[in-house]
Hints:
The chain is an all-alpha fold. The chain has 1 helix and no strands.
Amino acid sequence: MAGAGTRPLAARIGWFVLIWVGSVLALGVVGYGIKLMLR
């Protein structure tokens, strides 16, 4: 990892954002499904 530029950091941030958005969407879908089931 010696001499790493800014690209690995940007890729890491991109992956973090992708995983965060995916988890938030998954939680929203699960919560919506539970709300429909409890109706």
